[in-house]
Amino acid sequence: MKRVLVTGASGLGLEIARRYLNAGDQVCLLSQSEASIQSALESTGPAAIGVTGSVTRSEDIEHAIQRMCDAFGGIDCAISCAGINVVGPSLEVSAQTFSHILEVNVLGSFLVAQAAGRQMATHGGGSITFISSVYGESGAPQRAAYCASKGALHTLTESLSVEWGRYGIRVNAVAPTGIRSRMVQSLIEQGQYNLRGVEARTPLGRLAEPEEVANACYFLSSDQAAMITGHILPVDGGWLANGYII
């Protein structure tokens, strides 16, 4: 049985939490939204606990891990899922918006990894997984800050895996294509997401399902992935592999 920290208590974060809970693991959800935590806990049962806090505040993350140590006896896995995106012309995006995206997506992920890593380093190791994106490998219009943040996550993954391997800590990332979710559906309805274009480029011809991304996270933290670290695992239906423009 694994003891797992998941940041984000709705959407993909909740789906990831359910994947671990369904396998009999114990989960702590960290989210800024107390309402999201309460809703998640009502649907997940007694093997989950929730902590209200921000991934950009190290003291909030440390509090969540202390809660895990008190309730579960420690931490084995951390899944850094919390992230944001703002779509808009790069000629108009403000420095404040750009900085905020990097703060949540990059600094927040690092602080989660750092706090979890400190505990894991003195207790036999563990597994850390970042939720990245195919946009960490290639650019996209009107998403400069988001793409920059995900590219940073890829090199952060590699850097931490090299530095922390001696502690038995594995660090990987999952890089999905668009996920069939309320957020993506909202972007489609606002004309800010080219669904037909994504489906046309994707050899498997569709978006990823949330449970498919959750399964990838579960695999990377499992014993079956014991020799995998520093890896960026695309869950993209072949999107990155396709260099053919129709």
Automatic annotation (TrEMBL):
<dbReference type="InterPro" id="IPR036291">
    <property type="entry name" value="NAD(P)-bd_dom_sf"/>
</dbReference>
<dbReference type="Pfam" id="PF13561">
    <property type="entry name" value="adh_short_C2"/>
</dbReference>
<dbReference type="GO" id="GO:0016616">
    <property type="term" value="F:oxidoreductase activity, acting on the CH-OH group of donors, NAD or NADP as acceptor"/>
</dbReference>
<keyword id="KW-0560">Oxidoreductase</keyword>
<protein>
    <recommendedName>
        <fullName>Short-chain dehydrogenase</fullName>
    </recommendedName>
</protein>
<dbReference type="InterPro" id="IPR002347">
    <property type="entry name" value="SDR_fam"/>
</dbReference>
<dbReference type="InterPro" id="IPR020904">
    <property type="entry name" value="Sc_DH/Rdtase_CS"/>
</dbReference>
<dbReference type="GO" id="GO:0006633">
    <property type="term" value="P:fatty acid biosynthetic process"/>
</dbReference>
<comment type="similarity">
    <text>Belongs to the short-chain dehydrogenases/reductases (SDR) family.</text>
</comment>
<dbReference type="GO" id="GO:0048038">
    <property type="term" value="F:quinone binding"/>
</dbReference>
